[in-house]
Design brief:
Blueprint: E1 2-9, E2 12-19, E3 22-25, E4 30-32, E5 37-39, E6 47-50, H1 55-61, E7 71-74, E8 79-81, E9 85-88, E10 95-96, E11 99-105, H2 114-117, E12 121-128, E13 131-132, H3 136-139, H4 144-148, E14 153-161, E15 170-175, E16 178-184, H5 192-199, E17 210-212, E18 227-232, E19 236-244, H6 261-267
Parallel strand pairs: 6-17, 8-14, 9-19
Antiparallel strand pairs: 1-2, 1-5, 1-14, 2-3, 3-4, 6-7, 10-13, 11-12, 11-17, 12-14, 15-16, 15-18, 18-19
C-alpha cells in the first residue's frame, strides 16, 4: 500500500508520500508527520454521501431499508482536513460525529458495472460526516445545512492506494480517548463498488471525487473541546477538535435552529427516550421559529 498526503510545506501546497514517521516530497524535502499542516488529501469536484449503509445503524433506528441506496451531497465549502477545527455555531447544540470511509475516484467514471467499478477507485481516505441536526426540521430532505455547513467534512489524513475494504477492516470513532463507534466493513449493506456503479449510472464521477460510504451505529453529539478521531485499519487516524464558533447563526433570515423530536431522535440515536416505543412526532411547521424578516407580512 502507498499513502499520499497534501500538506503546506515551506508556504506552498505539496503532495507528499508517507515514509514511516516522515512525509517526503518529490524533490526530497522531508517533514515529520506530527509537524505537518494538512489539507484534504484530494481535490474533488463533488462529495456525495449515502444515507444508511451499516446494519447496526439500521437496527439502532428500528427502520427498514429501501431496495437501493439513497444519497445526499456535501458542498465543497464544507471540506476540512486532518487536525482541522470543526465549528459549532454558538446557538446550535446538536452536532453529531459520523465516522466513515471515503471512496476516492481515480478516473472518469460513467455507466460502469459493479465489477468494473473497482478499477475506477483510486483509493480510500477517512471522513467524519458531521451533522448539525439543529436544522433537521427544514433540511431533512436535502441535508444541505445539516451536513453541508462549513468545516463539517474533514477528510484525511492521506489517500491510501492498495487498501481493500473487502478484507473486513475495522472502523472506530473515538471521542476524548473513548471508543464510541466500532464496526467492520463487512457490515456494510452496499459495498464500495456498488455505490460507485449506482451513482455513475446518471452522474459522471471525476478523478478525485469523493463518496462517503455510511456510518455505523452510535453517532452522538460532540461538544466544544472534544477531540474526535476516526481510526480505520490500514488508513490511519483522522483527528479533529470541536470548537464553538465566534457568532450564532443569524436570526435575520432563514430557518432557525430547533429542538423538536425530529432533531432529538436523530441526535440521540438509540439513546432517544422513546426509541423502540414510537416514532418521533412530526414537526408542525407553524410552530417553528421565524426569522426577523418575513417578506410575507
Amino acid at each position: 500500500m502507498t499513502e499520499t498526503r497534501r500538506i503546506v510545506l515551506d508556504g506552498t501546497i505539496v503532495t507528499v508520500e508517507r515514509d514511516g514517521d516522515d512525509l517526503m516530497a518529490a524533490d526530497g524535502r522531508r517533514i515529520a508527520v506530527a509537524e505537518a499542516t494538512h489539507l484534504p488529501p484530494v481535490e474533488p469536484t463533488k462529495v456525495l454521501a449515502v444515507h444508511l449503509n451499516y446494519v447496526s445503524r439500521v437496527e439502532e433506528f428500528g427502520t427498514s431499508l429501501p431496495p437501493a441506496p439513497t444519497y445526499f451531497q456535501k458542498p465543497l465549502s464544507a471540506l476540512n482536513s486532518h487536525r482541522g477545527s470543526i465549528v459549532r455555531p454558538t446557538n446550535c447544540k446538536w452536532l453529531n460525529y459520523e465516522g466513515e470511509i471515503a471512496i476516492v475516484i481515480g478516473r472518469t467514471t460513467r455507466g460502469v458495472s459493479r465489477d468494473q467499478a473497482w478499477d475506477h477507485i483510486a483509493g480510500y481516505t477517512i471522513a467524519n460526516d458531521y451533522g448539525l441536526h439543529d436544522f433537521r426540521d427544514t433540511d431533512a430532505g436535502s441535508m444541505l445545512r445539516v451536513k453541508g455547513s462549513d468545516t463539517l467534512c474533514p477528510l484525511g489524513p492521506g489517500l491510501v492506494k492498495g487498501w481493500d475494504p473487502r478484507d473486513g477492516q475495522v472502523l472506530r470513532t473515538i471521542v476524548n480517548g473513548d471508543v464510541v463507534q466500532e464496526a467492520s466493513t463487512t457490515e456494510m449493506i452496499w459495498d464500495m463498488a456498488y455505490l460507485v456503479a449506482d451513482l455513475a449510472r446518471t452522474i459522471t464521477l471525476e478523478p478525485g471525487d469523493v463518496i462517503l460510504s455510511g456510518t455505523p451505529a452510535n453517532s452522538r453529539t460532540a461538544y466544544p473541546g472534544d477531540i474526535v478521531e476516526v481510526a480505520v485499519e490500514g488508513l490511519g487516524t483522522l483527528s479533529n477538535t470541536i470548537i464553538s464558533g465566534l457568532r450564532p447563526v443569524s436570526d435575520e433570515v432563514g430557518a432557525q435552529p430547533t429542538e423538536t423530536e425530529q432533531v432529538l431522535s436523530t441526535a440521540r440515536g438509540g439513546d432517544w427516550e422513546f426509541r423502540g416505543q414510537r416514532n418521533p412526532l412530526p414537526t408542525d411547521s407553524a410552530t417553528l421559529p421565524a426569522p426577523r424578516i418575513d417578506p410575507r407580512r
